[in-house]
Amino acid sequence: MTVIDELFAVLKERQANPSPESYTAQxxxxxxxxxxxxxxxSVEVILAAKGxxxxxLIEESADVVYHLSVLLVAKGIDWADIEAELVSRR
Length: 90
Description:
Elements: H1 3-16, H2 23-28, H3 31-49, H4 54-74, H5 79-88
């Protein structure tokens, strides 16, 4: 199992069993908030790439992947669907 598979499993669990203390569950309850976070984190990736260093770029990229994954789970899209699309583009 990859870390992405593990992430999706946790996100789906939070979706099925939401808890008020869970940041993920809060995001899943508010699609506009997910979209806002993706936008914010994408800007932070750009800023990191423009001079904040390798580690900062890694951290911000992980934030984008996390928030994008939350959106995909909210929309019923699995990571395998993304992989299949990438394979079709080879």
